[in-house]
Amino acid sequence: MVDPSAGYLSFMERNTLVRALTRATVALVGDAQRGMARAFDVPRVNVLRVVGAEVQRPSVIGERLGMAPSSVTRNIQALEDAGQVTVEIDPDDGRTCLVSATAAGLSELQQLDDIGATVFGAVVEDWSDSDIKTLTRLLERLTSDWAQRGPSARRRTRPTTNPRWRHRPEPADERD
Questions:
Q1: What are the pLDDT digits (tens) for 126-170?
Q2: Which of 9, 30, 55, 94 could be joined to 100 by an S-S link, Cβ 3.0–4.6 Å?
Q3: Residues 6+ apart with CB under 8 A from 63
């Protein structure tokens, strides 16, 4: 057997590591989503984050977030009603609009970031600075690699037949 610390693993060993990473990532993301959903409206905050970075058209917001146009519109309207965004006609294309964050919207994002930092600070309170830097670097790398390769790794088309264990047995009268 090759020394795993040298970076040479068999296919099965590497597959086991990747599966463990998948389970850990899914668990972390799931826990984070549930926690955030209890604290605030995640899609609405995501829209606010996009327009907090720069003025955007609703179509760009939808593309960035993978969100349906009706959901983008609903969230923009709620944010506008709350005074967190402004909506103006796009001077280059009167068929659409431009959405930008207000001072109140930017303040809301800052408060959420502060709360997030407090929560994460408590979670990693006993971690060394080196561990925090390492995890941050690796998460940034994972995020970047996912953005580049994740979508292409998904199955593009559904198989034409289900696996054998998913077939429903034929009724007895049709087999005769």
A1: 999 999 999 999 999 999 998 888 777 665 555 556 555 555 566
A2: 55
A3: none
Rounded Cα gap, residues 28 and 130, in angstroms? 21
Fill in the DSSP letter of residue 126. T
Q: Please give the structure tokens belonging to residue 61.
A: 């917001």
Q: What is the 3-state secondary structure (H, E, C) of 56-96?
A: ECHHHHHHHHCCCHHHHHHHHHHHHHCCCEEEEEECCEEEE
Q: Write the pLDDT tens digit of every residue in 80-126.
A: 999 999 999 999 998 999 999 999 999 999 999 999 999 999 999 99
Name residue 85's beta-bridge partners: 101
